[in-house]
Amino acid sequence: MNENKIKKPETGPRGPSGGGPMGGGPMRGLGISAPKAKNFKGTMSKLIDYLGSHKITILFVWFLAVVSTVFSIFGPKILAGATDELIAGYMNQIAGTGSIDFGRIAQILLWLVGLYLISSVFSYLQGFVMSGVTAKVTFKMRNEINSKIHKLPLGYYDTTTHGDVISRITNDVDAISSTLNQSMTQIITSITSLIGITIMMLSISWQMTLVSLGILPLSVIIIVVVVKKSQKFFKDQQRFLGSVNGHVEEMLGSHVVVKAFNGEEQSLEKFDEYNDALYHSAWKANFLSGLMMPIMGFVGNLGYVAICVLGGFFTINGKMTIGGIQAFIQYARQFNQPITQIANISNVLQQTAAAAERVFEFLEEEEQIPEEVDALSVTFGDADEKKNLVHIDGSVSFDHVSFGYEPDTMVIHDLSLKVLPGQKVAIVGPTGAGKTTIVKLLMRFYDVNSGAILIDGQDIRSFKRSELRSLFGMVLQDTWLFNGTIADNIRYSKLGASDEEVTEVAKAAQVDHFVRTLPDGYNMILNEESDNISQGQKQLLTIARAILADPKILILDEATSSVDTRTEVLIQRAMDNLMKDRTSFIIAHRLSTIRNADLILVMNNGDIVEQGSHEELIRKKGFYADLYNSQFERAS
User: Fold this and answer.
1) How would you classify residue 95: left for phi > 0, otherwise alpha for psi between -120 and 50, otherwise beta?
2) End-to-end CA distance of the chain
């Protein structure tokens, strides 16, 4: 199938009336209509469940983190022994009863170095293993998002900007990745440090330990208050970031239109509006999270002062050695670090929860109607019922079809129609009559609200979507080409096509001549916007792509609208050859191009108001005759 860029609905609330490169559609920016955020606890619970397949590895990482932390915790206590040994030797030297045992001190210090070295090795292993887990999780998450993109109905993209979707697969997943790689192990090391340091402090002085623990309730209260205040700003920050990305992506994709209509100033104003919303949410979130460090530092220093005074008193009274107070002060300093880390991690977790919430929200979006378990496959040969294969001749029937992009706004009303195999059917009518909507229903980009569309007597909903769409070749008014060679763009409808096949269809579509005049010919690279060739040349390439697909049913939506009159004549001949023995649907505004159609359907407001051949409709002097004659009146 030659699936060109899909046009937005012609009518209805989800149509293009609110969009365009200038406006961006209703609430495509600030996201005011975004669904209410889920709670922090629920989102983090989903994230933990998502990590279930890596639980053994994560537990191993936690083990490494605990071992690394435990080894480092013993450091101050061992160093205290070296200090006491040094002071005792010095006092003995003064008293003349001995000297400093540097050998013993060196032995203690070697033990200390060994402990820190082992701790570092375990810390490195922890980081190495966790990096692998993070990479696998983010890889899986991005794959699932990418898979979800193809499972969502087109209606979702009518109300969601491309930039917002891109933001979920980049910014939001990156935020989750950063937390998994750093914050998860920090939580374990911080908790282990708190427990281990508390035990070590109790082994030195329970009185001073109580003073240190006295600051813990105050710290917890501060963390809870700040987290509660800043959580909603972190959620807004992620949402508004998606809005900014959506606007930028739209402006870059339509920069030619923006410049042509002098829309730069309006675009900048809109960007400033979105960026201002992001700025206010971001600075509030960062300001509140930034308060954590100085407040926790102040609270920690209060406890540190109390410990120094009490430790000095105990040392003077001989209840504690100098090495003991040195070790305790080190532990007291270290005791504040995990508390501060937990405070900082709480802010990171809020941002992570906001990002994960957006990712899970996207993954939980309602998908298009699933295919039947025993969905039919298509064949152009003999049917085989045992393998669910159905022979396709190309007959198409609309059986009382009604459809609307919104349930209360119908675009197609009770449409019934039968097209025979090989018939050439033209669909005409004013803008918004529902012509392109019929094409989207045929391709099952949308499902009908009522009635059924049948191909060779089979409801299209009973086919596999991929099989159904393989029956069609499409050439739309809006061309779509990707960044790649001209040959690859033509080959997109039949990936295994040889160079000879590509050249053959290019000649049939009047493409070969102009391609050979380009630098590198068929190997010329089209840029991202495909604007290094003309609009008419792009149209010719999409026609060549449709010819290569060799489809059973053709859909042509103003396929020659972007080419000159001389080329149109040549293409019309190629299209006539292509349409031989194929059911063809032709949407046309220039009625002179469809005079030889077998059947012309005249649509207005979602209904077929007239049908017949060109001569029959002209003789009726009805709606079609008025449309046809009006074009020549304007031309004259």
Assistant:
1) alpha
2) 40
Q: Quick check: 533 and 539 in contact, CB under 8 A?
A: no
Of the two residues 530 and 583, the one the predictor is more confident about is 583
The vertex-330 CA angle with 325 and 331, nearest 5°, equals 95
Other Cβ atoms less than 10 A from the Cβ of 361: the count is: 16
Architecture of domain 16-21+55-363: Up-down Bundle (1.20)
Angle at 238 between CA 236 and CA 239, to 5 degrees: 60
Residues 6+ apart with CB under 8 A from 378: 389, 390, 392, 463, 467, 468, 470, 471
Between residues 486 and 407, the one the model is more confident about: 486
Cα separation of 545 and 464, whole Å?
Answer: 23
| Helices (runs of H) and strands (runs of E) counted in the chain | 22, 14
Whose CA is closest to 398, among 442, 435, 461? 442
Among 165, 185, 173, smallest CA distance to 137 is for 173
Give the C-alpha separation, 189 to 341, whole Å. Answer: 10
CA 121 to chain centre: 37
Q: How far is CA 462 from the centre of its chain?
A: 30
pLDDT at 562: 63
Question: Which residues are registered as beta bridge partners of 585?
Answer: 425, 555
| Its pTM surpasses 0.90 | no
SS3 content of the chain, % helix, strand, coil (to 5): 65, 10, 25
User: What is the pLDDT, as a whole number, of residue 11?
Assistant: 36
Is the model more confident about 15 or about 176? 176
Where in the chain are the domains? 16-21+55-363
615 DSSP β-pair partners: none
pLDDT (tens digit per residue) in 72-98: 888 888 877 777 777 777 676 677 776
Report the C-alpha gap between 325 and 323 in whole angstroms.
6
Rounded Cα gap, residues 389 and 458, in angstroms: 11
pLDDT averaged over the chain? 79
In degrees to the nearest 10, what's the CA dihedral of 580, 585, 587, 588? 30
Burial class from Cβ neighbours inside 10 Å (0-12, 13-18, 19+) for residue 154 reads middle
> Which residues touch 280 (CB under 8 Å, ≥6 apart)?
none
